[in-house]
Design a protein that fits this description.
- By secondary structure, the protein is α/β, with parallel strands linked by helices.
- It is 39% helix and 21% strand.
- The protein is built from five helices and seven strands; from the N terminus they run βββααββαβαβα.
- It has helices spanning 39-48, 51-60, 99-117, 136-151, 167-182; strands at residues 2-6, 9-15, 25-30, 71-75, 83-88, 121-124, 159-164.
- It binds adenosine-5'-diphosphate.
Amino acid sequence: MDELRIGDRILAITRGDITTIPADAIVNAANSALVGGGGVDGAIHRAGGPSIMAELRERYGPNRHCPTGSAVVTGAGNLPAHWVIHAVGPVWRGGRAGEPELLAAAYRTSCELASSLGARTITFPAISTGVYGYPLEEATRVALAAVRDHLAGTTTLERATFVLFSADSYEVFERALEALRQA
Ligand code: ADP
């Protein structure tokens, strides 16, 4: 666990499985069709149970679509949370298809939704850095900057934590957090 203070708020990183760490809101790296998938999306639906998918179906219909850079909210089923925020990050297409803006938007929208719900704590995976192929170092800079900017403004969030699944991604986030601290 490592953290950076932003006013009276905290931006933190930790290693682990996001489905096991309590938070008011857990962010999922979802796909636009909101149909579940592999990676962290699969882990969240498995650990949370069928109520999360049932709610997505009921609220957003069989032809549901969440645009890239946006997010939707459901309950959290059996997860140690009140809400899951299903955020859609961009697929990496080389970096000139608006990927940084879309990735920042996915984090920003998630933070704004969490604040609109009154959440005080939120956890994130490293969105788009798995199957979606976003280079880890670049994704890390975008992710930390977007969440830091949100925490520096008006929000109910007191603590935002990136939960990194692999030692590699933890190390990259650790270095980037240190760079932000020096900035
Ligand atoms: P995307 O499709 O947005 O790339 P993935 O789920 O493939 O999403 O990967 C996003 C990140 O989530 C990857 O860095 C992957 O290692 C990580 N991840 C996978 N499972 C978990 C988990 N249980 N908790 C936290 N992070 C996870």
